[in-house]
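Hey, why these numbers?
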Amino acid sequence: MAESWFTMELRIYLLLRRAFNVVRQSMPVSERITFEEFAILCHLQVEGVALKASEIADYQAVLRTTMTHRSNLLARNGYIERTMGENDRRNVFCTLTDKGRDYISLVSNEMLAQIKPSQPLHRTRPERIVMFVDAMGHLFCTARDIVLLCLLLHEEGSSISLIVDESGLLQPTVSMSVGGLIEDELVKRVSGQARTTWISLSGAGREAAEEIAQQISELVVHRMRNA
């Protein structure tokens, strides 16, 4: 039987990024990891085998030095084990630990709890959240990118407070991102909104946001593995 899969939708992508951001901020600082680091854990769980650090670097399309930093942090937290290859010690293998599996279960369940009954994926399972995050881990999105994507969903613009609510990012992070985007002429202020800073995408900003949204639409989420 052919493997069944579907591609990502922008609203679902933003919904899950928001859920992760909210859950992350509720955790003790010592237990917080980035979305990209959480995606590594989900990728290891989905694959079900130890993976070379180089394979995970290819999965996230990052340099080996970046992957070394991320995997070292995950190892220090006890979420993965790093072992040298028996035949070639230049190969470093990453294996998900029981603590890592528990962490995935905790975060995926709490992410699911952040999804409202009226929103997509409300009736899904935590295991499906893991599959989505695994797919999302192929694409690196900055806070600036997330702001652009939120604005893409609002033809008439939005406020900083609404973007904070929709993204799950902290208000200072959103404000700093908006300031940089305005400076780069990707976002513009909209007049006529009393007592609120209203912003919208410029023409160049819309092109940038649509390019990211296109990459999101190409992310593949598998329904079944090894069917």
In short: The beta strands are 5-7, 51-52, 80-84, 92-96, 158-159, 187-190, 198-201, 220-222. The chain has two domains: 5-140, 143-216.
